[in-house]
UniProtKB/TrEMBL annotation, chain A:
This is Trafficking protein particle complex subunit 6B. Belongs to the TRAPP small subunits family. BET3 subfamily. Transmembrane segments: none annotated. It comes from the Eukaryota. InterPro entries: NO_sig/Golgi_transp_ligand-bd, TRAPP_component, TRAPPC6/Trs33. PANTHER family: GEO08327P1, TRAFFICKING PROTEIN PARTICLE COMPLEX SUBUNIT 6B. One of its GO terms (biological process) is endoplasmic reticulum to Golgi vesicle-mediated transport. GO terms for cellular component: cis-Golgi network; trans-Golgi network; TRAPP complex.
């Protein structure tokens, strides 16, 4: 029997970490806060990859590893599969989750400025503060994915995007290069 | 409408959304590790963990009250029992016990044998003085403050420091009566 805790434990912990780093430690330095949050995720992903791939043979290629993430890994973490996987066959994968649980209960600011580009998170105006907070939460998940893959020898950059607020998140993994360990 | 009976910790835990404890344990560990890297001083990390716990506790109490249907506790003894039997169970899935009451009934120990926060955890020698689970003490302090009790929560025993159980001392400092938020203007 897998040990469990209440979902609100994890939710509260994540919310508090994001709030702590964004508002208390680095109040006007969103880049620094984001990097720290991503680093925490990286650590988690790294350790999870050891535990979840212990009993299976080595992945033959990147696609197999990504498919493992989409099915088994997502299932362990979020109790569902990734809803959609796309690739450009040149090293970039896009995972789409239509109801990403860590965003599912966030409220949307009705006055959010939807015209702004989603990549511009360094200077949140009053209008897209909600989106900014959500992106901060996504850094943690990006870190988990990056950490997970790096322990399998797949070094990549992971970025996330919110398509239809608030419940759809893309994770775009573009792999930089593969590290082969003998 | 007849009052709803309070639910046991097991019943609540069985009915709420649950997640893999490993993810929670590893996330907590990664947070402590990152705090140690960023803050460097163990005392500062202890303080931040307690503060984070406090911020979590002041919100967690709402969920606790909503889901557990406990009625107002008659005295601090009942409060401690409820924390140990219902609170810990419904969030962390483990039951704690209460002991070491003082004569006035304002100070007790909550003893935890099984703690999901510390699965796979070992403290290196460089972390002497770290209270790894200090977030728990903040959570209890924050939650109790929201129900009008000012408390002081300190660690007496810590498994990561070589003891056999986790023992948290909860001392009731002051019962703050609920204030009516509006001034009566005559």
């Amino acid at each position: 029997m897998v040990r469990e805790v209440s979902e609100s434990c994890l939710d509260s912990l994540l919310t508090e970490v994001v709030s702590c780093y964004c508002n208390r430690f680095y109040p006007n330095k969103h880049d620094l806060a984001a990097r720290r949050i991503e680093a925490i995720g990286y650590q988690v992903g790294h350790q999870l990859s050891e535990r979840y791939t212990m009993e299976r043979p080595r992945f033959n290629d990147h696609l197999e590893a990504i498919k493992f993430i989409c099915k088994d890994f997502w299932l362990e973490l979020f109790k569902k599969h990734v809803d959609n996987l796309r690739t450009n066959h040149r090293g970039t994968f896009v995972l789409q989750d239509n109801k990403f649980c860590w965003l599912a209960r966030m409220s949307i600011d009705p006055f959010a400025d939807s015209g702004k580009s989603p990549e511009d998170i360094t200077s949140p105006t009053a209008g897209n503060k909600a989106t900014h907070a959500m992106k901060m939460h996504l850094y943690f998940s990006c870190g988990i994915l990056r950490g997970f893959l790096s322990n399998l020898g797949i070094l990549c950059a992971v970025s996330a995007d919110i398509l239809t607020l608030p419940t759809c998140a893309y994770f775009s993994l573009s792999h930089t290069y593969t590290e082969i360990t003998l | 409408m007849a009052p709803v009976a309070p639910r046991s910790g097991d019943a609540i835990f069985a009915n709420i959304e649950r997640v893999n404890a490993e993810l929670f344990t590893l996330t907590y560990g990664a947070i402590v590790r990152q705090l140690l890297t960023d803050l460097e001083e163990v005392e500062e990390v202890n303080k931040q963990l307690e503060q984070m716990g406090y911020n979590i506790g002041i919100r967690l109490i709402d969920e606790f009250l909503a889901k557990s249907n406990v009625s107002r506790c008659v005295d601090f003894r009942e409060t401690a029992d409820v924390i140990a039997k219902v609170g810990f169970k419904m969030f962390l899935g483990v039951t704690a016990s209460v002991g070491n009451w003082d004569a006035e009934g304002t100070c007790c120990s909550i003893i935890l044998e099984d703690n999901p926060l510390v699965d796979f955890v070992e403290l290196p020698d460089t972390c002497q003085g770290l209270y790894y689970c200090n977030m728990l003490s903040g959570v209890i302090r924050g939650a109790l403050e929201m129900v009008s009790m000012k408390t002081e929560v300190t660690w007496i025993r810590d498994v990561l420091r070589g003891d056999d159980v986790f023992e948290l001392q909860v001392k009731l400092l002051k019962q703050v009566p609920e204030e009516y938020p509006y001034k009566d203007d005559e």
